[in-house]
Amino acid sequence: MDKNIRLIGNAHLDPIWLWRWQEGCGEVLQTFRSALDRLQEYDDFVFTCSSAAYYKWVEDIDPQMFEEIKKMVKKGRWVPVNGWWVQPDCNMPSGESFARQALYSQLYYYEKFGKICKTGYNVDSFGHSAFLPQFLKKSGMTGYVMHRPGTHENKEIPENLFWWDSADGSRIMTYRIPDGYGSNGKEALDRKMADMEERANETGHGMMLFYGVGNHGGGPTKGDIEYLKLNLKREGFNDLEFSSPDDFFEELMTQPLDLPSWNDEMQHHASGCYSATSLVKELNRKAENLLSAAEKWDTVSSIVVDSKAETCEFKKAWQEVCFNQFHDILCGCSIREAYEDVKESEGYALTVASKAYNNAVLRIARKIDTWIDGVDEAVLENTTNQMALEKGFPRPVVVFNPHSYNIEIPVRVHHASKGVKDSDGNDVVFQNVRASRSNDSHLDTLFMASVKPLGYATYWLEKAVDEKAEKEITVEQNFFMENEHIMVSFDTTTGYIKNLVNKENGVEFAGDNFVAIPTVINDLETDTWAHNVFKFHDIKGLMQLVSIKRIEEGPLRSVIRTVHSFNESYLTQDFILAKGQKTLRVDCKALWQEKFSMLKMAFPVGGSEEISTYEVPGGFIKRPCNGEEEPALNWADLTVTKNGKRTGISIMSDSKYSYDCPDTELRLTVLRNVIFADHYSDRPEANFDFTDEGMNRFSYGIYLHNGEAESSEVVKEAHIFNNNVAVVPESYHKGPLDPTDSFMYTDCDNVLITAVKRSEDGSGDLIIRLYETKGEERTRGMLMSKLFDNGFWFDISKHEVKTFRVRKDLTVLETNFLEGIV
Amino acid sequence: MKNPVILFPRLTKSSSHYKRYDIEVPKSLHEKTPKKPNLEGFPYPLPQKKSDYTCFCEGENGVIWYGSNGGVTRYAENADRKDDIIMHFSARRDLLDNNVIALESDGNNGVWVLTEKGATHIKMTKMSMEEKAYLLTEETHKYVDRRGMTSQKKLAEPGNLKSAVSYGHSDNDGSFTVGFAIGEIFRYATLKKEKGEYAKETLEARASATRACEANLLLMYIAGRGNGFVARSYLTTAEPIPDDGLFYKKNGETAVCVSTTDSQKKKLVGKEIKADAPIPERLRKLYTSEGFSDTDIVYKGDTSSDEITHHYIHLLVAHEFLGREDPELDAIIKEAAVNTMNHIIEGGYAIIEIDGKPTTWAKWNLDYFNSYMGWADACLNGAELLMYLKVTMRVTGETGKWEEEYNKLLFKDGYKDLVTKHFDRFHQVALAGGLDDREEIMYGDHMLAVLSFWGLVTLEQDPELKEIYREGFRSWRYSLAPEYNAGYDFIYFLSDPENAKPDEERIRTWFYRFGATRIASGVSLNMRVDYPQKLFMGGYKETSALLPNDERFIAKYDRNPLEFKNEDSGGAGVVEGCYPYTFAYWIGRYFGFIAEGK
Description:
The complex is a heterodimer.
Chain A: E1 5-10, H1 21-41, E2 47-50, H2 52-61, H3 63-75, E3 78-81, H4 95-113, E4 119-122, H5 132-138, E5 143-146, E6 160-165, E7 171-176, H6 186-203, E8 207-211, H7 222-230, E9 240-242, H8 245-253, E10 261-262, H9 278-304, H10 311-324, H11 327-330, H12 336-365, H13 385-390, E11 395-401, E12 407-413, E13 417-422, E14 430-434, E15 443-451, E16 455-463, H14 469-472, E17 480-482, E18 486-490, E19 497-502, E20 507-508, E21 517-522, E22 539-542, E23 544-553, E24 557-566, E25 569-578, E26 583-592, E27 597-604, E28 608-616, E29 619-623, E30 630-631, E31 635-642, E32 645-653, E33 658-660, E34 665-673, E35 694-706, H15 714-721, E36 726-729, E37 740-742, E38 744-746, E39 751-758, E40 766-772, E41 778-785, E42 790-796, E43 801-806, E44 812-815
Parallel strand pairs in A: 1-2, 1-8, 1-9, 2-3, 4-5, 5-7, 6-10
Antiparallel strand pairs in A: 6-7, 11-16, 11-36, 12-15, 13-16, 14-15, 16-37, 17-18, 18-19, 19-20, 21-22, 21-27, 23-24, 24-25, 25-26, 26-35, 27-34, 28-29, 28-31, 30-33, 31-32, 32-35, 33-34, 38-41, 39-40, 40-43, 41-42, 43-44
Helix pairs in contact in A: 1-3, 2-3, 4-10, 9-10, 9-12, 10-12
Chain B: E1 5-7, E2 10-18, H1 27-31, E3 53-58, E4 63-68, E5 71-76, E6 86-89, E7 100-105, E8 111-115, E9 118-127, H2 129-144, E10 152-154, H3 173-195, H4 200-221, E11 233-236, E12 247-250, E13 254-257, H5 261-265, E14 272-274, H6 281-288, E15 297-300, H7 305-321, H8 327-346, E16 350-352, E17 358-363, H9 366-369, H10 378-396, H11 400-412, H12 415-418, H13 422-432, H14 437-440, H15 443-459, H16 463-474, H17 477-480, H18 486-495, H19 504-512, E18 533-535, E19 541-543, E20 574-576, H20 579-591, E21 594-596
């Protein structure tokens, strides 16, 4: 059996880390020039480099050099790897983001080099979530190279070469780099050669030796290449050969190897990174959600009102989001100045999404028949709506639902109302609530909107003519709220929740302990990454109550506001319980000044037989309740047995990614305030900036359920919590569209549609992506859509992501993330 | 499963084709003025584009039949099961062609269809799943049976049962007939349990099971080499010899290798081999009763592991349910098991052909397993050989050298580790070939794995080994499970009850939507828009969801039911045996996975 050591000349490039992107861009140009020179100098040298974003920089800035690279790629001397835009953090991007990482990158590689990348390559990413094998395979890749966590951080993961399986059934051959992705100099190379030799002999198969100056680029040096050439053949040792990961995997796949397998995530390396620098996390979540929602409605608009689909704009916006998912960016461990750039970049993506969304829903809304007999010509235009209102005509408002299931949620209009009706003339529950403005009536209208999947609904709002309505709102000061699903009450001494009852099964989640306790953790002894620290349990203290007040009470919702402090830091929480809602929403405002600290919202719910469940890209996984800090997407859950009943509490958020679960306590980490890009330095005296200092706004939600997490509705609740429902005040006009409609749905309660878009190839074909949410296989699921006036059947495995392409002739192709283009 | 899935009588389709102006065709069908249906807002996926629907008619109980350029769609809005709301009928399985001109209800749940090439009467007959089993078995007995072998038979006129000719062997007669025989044996066992040993139906079932059993056993003797060599199949001199393998004409004391492309390649033409070892008389009767003598026999060699595996599980089932009541038969079973087992052991764990070399595919030894070709096969073949030994021990009641071999293979030769590695090795081989897993699957292997692990889990008493065999079985589920083949799944549920997760609706659909004839034919998937195509790395195509049995091409268990095939699928020139249904049905009934509802 071939036990040769493949020499992988590579350059790990951080486009942002201890520098800003402009410097990272320069580093890429210099590294690529150097690599081309080495390729010219040494006939057998092979260079490997990842990340489509870097190639795009080079193409734009130095097209001549890009042509040189293309020639080398054609010869097989330069091997692009990782068919993703960058080496992303592999815990926090959504499943849809991984699809976009692949889509825009592999198509770029295919366009420029005539082939896609076969090897996934995330050699520096700080952990690898459980469904990556599926994402890699559906990105068109067949092998994977990773490095972290190291064996000192997790000994259970197989070393060297192994099969990595995800729960949907995907499997990918994976190489765990034993000793770093980059090295140079004789001493380092000697060490690595000896190590690889030993491993090759132990495993009976070849190994890869990665070399080259990395992080700030550089790549293989002349000295390294020449030293390795001297050692290619040594008596009594396995041969060394210049190679690439593509060739390594291709050759190893043909050898009869019985490799170990691993069917779990690969964690932990930098547990502080799940919460460091809230800004970038918030922007990532917002951009992902808004782009997905906007793209869906842009696609609907392109079909229903024949508008131009903004596919190219979305591509550029998603590329910005993908770029900012680079591990050192999204993990919050770069320098402060870099996050100024992130704001610009994500701002661009958000602007593209907002504009496209608004354009799309307005185009549709203006085709809805909102005409009322009696509204004469004088009030046809928006500028004169006021006249219609003055005359007593209700105002039309259209609510757009981007989700693939029915929603029934409160929505807000920035005007007061004295009544709300649906399009059938039925009264709708509403409530005038305090607006954020001081001008005008000071009141907004909240009303309960019920909207079908990927659909819209028209409501009619009657103007509140009494400008003094606000003064008439009086709120009795009690600290108890209840709706059909939840009962909650607060302790007036601490401001913490003292009762939290799931009304469906009567289980009390507080009682013995308070819950929703803002807990300040000492984070002094760690660095930004929290290297070698996996638990954050050193409690500095609990935030103390400053005030508690009931600020709203009405037919639609009640709100209780608490204010807590800790030294010079303040936290304001608005606990909002609305009619019919299964989630208790908490809108927070934190003025944070506590250095070297972490803020956690703690839910010590008690019980026994605890199981913690976390949403991860593409699905959910269970993890031990051992108190280690864990990454999660929209939600995490703790399910226990209480009073003989299996029941659970899920905590969701609009912008957070970090939790821990010591035994029967679930804690959401909402802030982490440490020095930017601090790598266990000696912290000389300086006016350091801290990652979360200043004002932070975020929301979290509390959802109670029967049974296990996966059988609950937590996924839908958390997605609604992160909703991008559009509320469009409209005018009076005739139009061909009905007052309510729905454009796509499935009959599966365990399937969510995450993308509805046009194909990237300009064909106009429709792309639909969906995934399974409950860990249950589903056969003969049905998807129906007015967008192509038909539907289709599909089978889906547990935790599977599926992409469909509906062609112009209405035949349907199941494809991967690359949309059947490659 | 705690409780059986109750199967109720259902409407089951069948098609009869006519010339356009045949007297049987209602004249009114020609007088119809086609009217395009209004399908706006149709609430389910339609198999064809809405614009392709050309006509419609109303049937009984709210059913509407829609005709299109791609076949006929039946819409039963009030159906009690989602899977039965939409049914689609296409050429050639259901229609002469797909261009529907007119439709007319037959007033009895069915419909008359006028298409470009003629007329078709689609009947919808209410029948129980047991009635369907009998109907299919009757068709097999009447049109497929060839001296007890029940793979398939040629039709001189495609689609016309009455044109069945007297020949039409399959390369795997020994395998497919085992499928039929096991189904019939479990029919007998079920009826004996339910109706008593001497009930008419029980006795008929026993006779049918015994005939199929004898036909299989005959293949283990017919070569007459006296060394346990098993024939793939055999013909008589009244049948043409096809050019697809090695055939030996028996001439008395010897048999001579017939000239075919394969025998020429192997330079075996004219080579002689012993052929006069005795064949039990009750087996010989299968051909002597039709007027053939020993010298009229042409048997097929180069036998593969597929046949051997089927034969050994058949020996076990026949021994357990027939042999115990029929000592003569049981003696034949035991002798066959011993002879072939000895042949395999003496051949170095291989079946040896007349050139002294192993046959192309019957190899279970480490030399083969360590070869490029055998590395991935090792996991299945290892389990097969272990199963043969367990079966031999069981039917003979002896351990001795069989157990020694068994333990040697397990613990010395490493078969214990091999049997669980199927998925790992298979996946790697697929990748090495630049293919997705599903492109590399040999669908014929599925039955072999199911039978091998069934035998091993059933017979092995050691808990640790039993669990290893269960693990081995599980290593096949990734490709077995998507088939929702009741025949496979019932056996898996029996073998690994803790991991069994029966999907009752899939079980119902599998039986309810199984057609009532096995006339081979294809369907027209290329025109369907309600089932996505799934493309794999190597270009292979599947449907994204599993079509109901009666909307797929007719196939045995050795084809991928998800394969995206068009009208040319299904090999229209034969009628196949019924084991794909009866094997599953009677095992399901016997073990209580299903029961008939009234």
